[in-house]
Write the structure tokens for this entry.
Amino acid sequence: MEKKLKRIGVMTSGGDAPGMNAAIRAVVRTALYHKLEVFGIMRGYQGMIDNDMFQMDNRSVANIIQRGGTILKSARCKEFFEPAGRKKAYENLKKHAIDGLVIIGGDGSFRGACAFSAEFDIPCIGLAGTIDKDISGTDFTIGFDTAVNTAVEAIDKIRDTMDAHDRVFIIEVMGRDAGYIALHSGIATGAENILIPERKTDINNIIQGLQEKERRKKMVNLIVVAEGDDFGGANEVQKILEENLPHSEIRVCILGHIQRGGSPSCMDRVLASRMGYHAVECLLEGRHNVFVGIQNNKMNYIPLETAVKNKGTISDEWMKIVKILAS
């Protein structure tokens, strides 16, 4: 007979994402509604190892839904990759009688959860909190909508000055392994070229297009680059273009961590709230080691291990849209 759930822990791990606080709030208040005790774990897996945990109540999550970042902080923890580190984390959870975990994070956080749950008897529920939208099994991840809207707002402003001076602008957005922010923000701002890690870039085609514009004295061109593209980011693309277009003014703008910050959008707040609610429901229903995603506006539950193994993919149709709309 399965033991009754009495106390859960909640943590945020990996890169921060707008909406994480909304997810924490939903987990805490749903758990309290069901008469469960909730412990907040500071700085992700590092806090588990350091025994940095505290009991949360309704007041702990008051007035946080609109705040970016995470009140539980976040950190990357190399020690947790080792069996000794995971054993120490488990012993600390047992000291607090925690018998269920909600982990808000990305791919790396889920990998840690898979290893942990395989070794110990604490069920883990994963919520995709990552601006990269690179987790399979969900249409959106917490933070993506806010991050891409931040990028769009910045690119729109850059386009104004680009048009005024007939310049080529290369905008670098986040996305070391995934090009979703570049793809969505590039389409939304009318970029002529979008460079992403998932697709090999035909740089000669870009150069030929710019050379043709140069001949026609029309050098306004917007290129959106994911930081993990073929060439290693916007600065490297700039070097290649300047070698082949000596008479063109080519400027680079790297948006960087501005995309992680700021108040979460309505969509991210609602998404995080729904996911947080369903994470607690999963634990109560006895679902173990699953990832809570959303597809076609319905909650989707898949094994954490599957979410880790299968990356989200960018279809040929997306790239066809980019090509046609930029022509």
